[in-house]
Amino acid sequence: MALTDTLSTADGPDSGFDSAVSLLQLVRSMRSTDFRIAEDYQSIWQTANRINWNIQDLIGGDKRLNFTQPFLPDALVGINAIQCLSDEEKLKLNQIRGNSYLSLFGLCEEFILPSVVEHINQIRWNNLYATQAFLHFAEEESKHILLFQRFAEDFEQGFGTVCECIGPAHTICDRILNHHPLAVALTTLHIEWMTQRHYLESVRDNQGLDPQFCRLLRYHWLEEAQHAKLDALMVQDIARSLSPEEIERAIADYFTIVDLLDQGLQQQVQLDLESLSRATNRWFSDVERAEIQTIQLQSYRWTFLWSGMTHQNVGRIFNEIYPSSETQLLEKAKNFG
User: What is the tally of structural domains in the chain?
Assistant: First the structure.
């Protein structure tokens, strides 16, 4: 509500007093909201500093991957359902999926980082607590990119054969960043809460996975938990300055980005199949290839698209910025679940 709207509604002999009271209430409400948001940013920043970690503490030296164990739970890779693979081949594919899982996260971090920096440029000195929190957000995203690059080096040395991932990252990121900033922020929100769901529901209590890989996921999850809160605030902040029509267009842009990500996942399935063929020294028949591709595409879509789009916190934010948009979100998600 604008100040002019408050002042123009008063009439009658007590209109001046009523207008003053209304104005005072409005200002108090605005201040209360500003203070609450500032406290949110300050709290997130303080928590982020407490859980901060260094790359060298997690990887390198005697902290090595164990290639006799799976890297990811079957809930995230859907390999156990493949009938044409032996147990040894399934283990190889699981580790290939672990490699692509972190590669895809690294790719996402590369478009999240510049979008956060751009948001900082918009905030500037208007909210120093927010600036401080988002600067830390950006720093951690760049750290995650470096961590995943180190992982890729360790994986390549230990796995024994080449495993390719989609790219180049900068080309894909440029295509995503060409969309509306709110659409990019919604995509980031999707990814952050997807990360939370993966770790909490499938990884945290799973004792059968490689401890080193789980360690990387755990520390990534700890920092992403703060990013999920910050990105929700970023989405709300961007949406606050937009008209309903602009928000609607940005949501449509988000769905375009989802389709772009899906195209990348389809390409990754093909690359994984080629990696598996090299790793096992096995040529797959057309029937076998079709089985692996169908099951793996379904798994990739569930893991990277459906699990983020259907997270309750993602749906809640969609409805907050544009009522009823969660219905659109869940309808779109049906294509990937």
Answer: 2
